[in-house]
Amino acid sequence: MGSAGLTQAREKMMAAGVDEVAIETFAHYYRLLEHGETGMIPESTIEPVDMEALADVEVPDDVAAEAVRHTAVIKLNGGLGTSMGMDRAKSLLCVRRGLSFLDIIARQVLHLRQQYDATLPLIFMNSFRTSADTMAALTRYEDLPVEGLPLEFLQNKEPKLLTKDLTPANWPADRDLEWCPPGHGDIYTALRGTGLLERLIEAGYRYVFVSNSDNLGAVPDARVAGWFAQSGAPFAIEAVRRTPSDRKGGHFARRLSDGRIVLRESAQTLDADKDALADLGRHRFCSTNNLWFDLQAMQRTLDERSGILGLPMIRNVKTVDPGDPSSPEVVQIETAMGAAIEVFEGSRLIEVGRDRFIPVKTTNDLLVLRSDVYDIRDDFVLDQSAAQVPFIDLDTGFFKLVGEFDKRFPEGAPSLRKASAFRVDGDVTFGKGVEVVGDVEVKAESARRVEPGTVLAAES
Question: N or C: which end of the chain has fewer CB within 10 A?
Answer without folding.
Answer: C
